[in-house]
Design brief:
Elements: H1 3-6, E1 41-52, E2 55-57, E3 62-63, E4 70-80, E5 85-92, E6 96-100, E7 116-130, E8 136-153, E9 164-184, E10 189-196, E11 199-208, E12 216-225, E13 228-238, E14 241-250, E15 256-257, E16 272-273, E17 278-288, E18 293-302, E19 309-310, E20 318-330, E21 333-344, E22 347-351, E23 354-359, E24 362-374
Parallel strand pairs: 19-22
Antiparallel strand pairs: 1-4, 1-24, 2-3, 2-23, 4-5, 5-7, 6-7, 7-8, 8-9, 9-10, 9-11, 10-13, 11-12, 13-14, 14-17, 15-16, 17-18, 18-20, 20-21, 21-24, 22-23
Length: 375
């Protein structure tokens, strides 16, 4: 069972569908699997998540669905420059948030407008790999990242902060990545471990509020996107069948965003904070049915990043199941599609240290498509 004949059969984690409402702001999972493909390879894909997140405020009022649909594209190219040197460029949107509370009479709207959050990031990772033997691949490279956000707080849940707005201008910063992979092609065995550094952003922001001491505040705001480790494993277990697993750790513990106005002694409140690290795992099987058709099934778990959590993403982790398929019209290109269903974890929403809402029995549906080409 040669790796170069079956590796493309696997849909690792079906598709990169990690919902931003689950653990911190995590979305893409930051896979580098495209870089570990044999030979020259390119891919492009898009993933979509449709969450349903409902709950109740402290007054017992129903909070209608506040989770917005969102999509995130990805792309990668890998070139085997020599027998021992490979080069790669990966694009994804690793972190983000999209939520809009409805004007539904709950404590998260003011009667005319609801609380709203949009967070966007873009990542570009350049990689160089060294393969001293057929079995080993050692790789590293710089990471360029941008972050921008716009958040509006509305309703009685925020007390005097109802009417608060913050716009964080797009800002770029750099980090790095390093890791290694080991493979035994004869049994389709591959293992890789990848570390990504934290990236420190110091962006310009504009805060506005109804507070007498903070009508308009222009100041820098610090945010550090967390360090992480990904462990990917796969092995052949039967003819044309692979077992695979992805384990991920993200250092959300003590993650804090605290703009200048919210840091005022009379408020002393964080805009976003998380109390626990994120641990996630996906395991599954991939099977080659014919020379053109492949499929996979997976089960996933995410611990979340602490509970209670910010009102801007009131979910504590998830369980998921996924199915994927791949069609290869020719040996050098393929089309993948997949779907995942998520059971989102119950969570209590907080403002500062006060519990202001309870969100239970929520779910999400993720789906996506990818095209890969070998050249």
């Amino acid at each position: 069972m040669k790796l170069n004949k079956i590796y493309s059969a696997i849909l690792l984690s079906t598709l990169p569908l990690t919902p931003g409402l689950a653990a911190g702001l995590d979305r893409s999972g930051q896979s580098i699997s495209a870089f570990l493909q044999p030979g020259n390879y390119a891919e492009a894909g898009i993933s979509v998540l449709d969450p349903t997140v409902k709950g109740k405020d402290n007054s017992g009022n129903k909070v209608e669905d506040m989770g917005d649909d969102y999509y995130f594209p990805s792309a990668a190219i890998k070139v085997q420059a020599t027998d021992k040197i490979s080069l790669g460029l990966l694009y994804d949107q690793p972190y983000g948030a999209d939520a809009t509370y409805q004007v539904d009479g709950s404590d998260f709207s003011d009667g005319t407008e609801g609380t709203k959050v949009e967070v966007r990031t873009h990542n570009l990772t350049a990689l160089i790999g060294y393969q001293p033997t057929e079995n080993w691949n050692i790789y590293a490279g710089p990471v360029w990242q941008t972050v921008e956000a716009e958040i509006k707080l509305r309703g009685a849940a925020y007390k005097a902060l109802s009417g608060y707005n913050i716009k964080i201008e797009q800002e770029e910063a750099f980090g790095w990545l390093a890791g290694f992979a080991y493979q035994i092609p004869e049994i389709a065995l591959k293992a890789s471990i990848t570390y990504r550094s934290e990236i420190k952003h110091n962006a310009s922001s504009t805060e506005t509020s109804k507070l007498p001491f903070g009508k308009i505040v222009n100041s820098p705001v610090e945010a550090i996107t967390p360090q992480s480790v990904n462990l990917d494993l796969q092995t052949g277990i039967a003819k044309n069948t692979l077992a695979f697993a992805n384990l991920r750790w993200v250092h959300w513990d003590n993650f804090v965003v605290s703009p200048k106005l919210l840091s005022h002694p009379l408020i002393s409140q964080n805009l976003i904070d998380y109390s626990d690290d994120q641990y996630s795992a996906t395991v599954g099987l991939g099977h080659k049915f014919s020379s053109k058709w492949l499929g996979s099934a997976s089960v996933g778990y995410d611990s979340g990043a602490g509970n209670p959590v910010t009102t801007l993403g009131p979910v504590e982790g998830f369980w998921s199941v996924g199915l994927g398929g791949q069609y290869s019209p020719a040996e050098n290109y393929f089309i993948q599609a997949g779907v995942k269903y998520f059971w989102l974890g119950d969570a209590k929403a907080k403002r500062g240290t006060d519990i202001v809402g309870d969100f239970e029995d929520n779910h999400a549906l993720g789906y996506g498509m990818k095209i890969g080409y070998r050249f």
